[in-house]
Amino acid sequence: MNKLLLFTLLFSTSLMFSQKDNVTKGNWNNLKGISEYTLVFDYSDLEIPKYDSEEEFLEDKMAKRDEKEPGTGEKFKESWFSDRENYYEPRFIETFNDRYKDGLVKVDSDLGSAEYTMKIHTTFMYPGYNVGVVRHNSKIETTISVYKNDSPDTIIFSVDYTKVEGAGNAGYDFNSGQRIADAYIILARALVKDMYKNNK
């Protein structure tokens, strides 16, 4: 096998298993028999390394961009928020539904037939960077909670995922939205693996 290909496979596999999961309420068996979930994505109280708040992060990044080229700061802010709907969420949904064996479980942001909601609360986000000769993976941490649609205050299951890193898209991840979206792909793979393993 080509040495570069072997390294790539080993590297991506190590990333897949680097994340940690910690069940904080209920257990995986509580999800047994549930075949559909309506997804809700929550980015409130988002922690970003080296900043006291998401607002401070945006102010800093916008100011630096506007200093180089006026008007680009606002464009960055717009993409920071639109990337959620354009990149992170669809990548998570596509990956989950593609990888869950035989389509036994399905998730989407608008499933009228689903009786349960799965809330993906992203609590930590590091965009990473790629300047060509040097790059760093994106990272996210999330709390995933499940509840009946009509009982949002009654959580039947909750799990924290930490140290979720994007795999890097073979180094072609110059856009921050794509880098972060890759971490959501890894998150979906980890969740499918844990759900299937504990509920087959």
What does this protein look like?
It is a single chain. The protein is of the alpha/beta class. The protein has one domain (3-199). It is built from 4 helices and 8 strands; from the N terminus they run αββααββββββα. The strands form 2 sheets. A 6-stranded mixed sheet has the order 1-8-7-4-2-3. A hairpin with a 6-residue loop joins strand 7 (139-148) and strand 8. The longest helix is centred in the middle third of the chain and has 28 residues, at 72-99. The radius of gyration is 18 Å and the shape is elongated. It starts with a helix and ends with a helix. The model is unreliable at 1-17 (pLDDT under 50).
Instruction: Provide the domain count.
Output: 1
Strand order of the largest sheet: 1-8-7-4-2-3
What is the CA–CA distance across the termini? 34 Å
Which geometry do the CA atoms define? elongated
Oligomeric composition of the shown chains = single chain
Structure classification? alpha/beta
Strand % is: 25-35%
Number of beta strands: 8
- Summarize model confidence as the mean pLDDT: 87
Q: Count of DSSP helices?
A: 4
Order of helices and strands: HEEHHEEEEEEH
Fraction in helix: 40-55%
What Rg is obtained from the alpha carbons, in whole angstroms?
A: 18 Å
Question: Could you give a short account of the major beta sheet?
Answer: 6 strands, mixed
Low-confidence stretches: 1-17
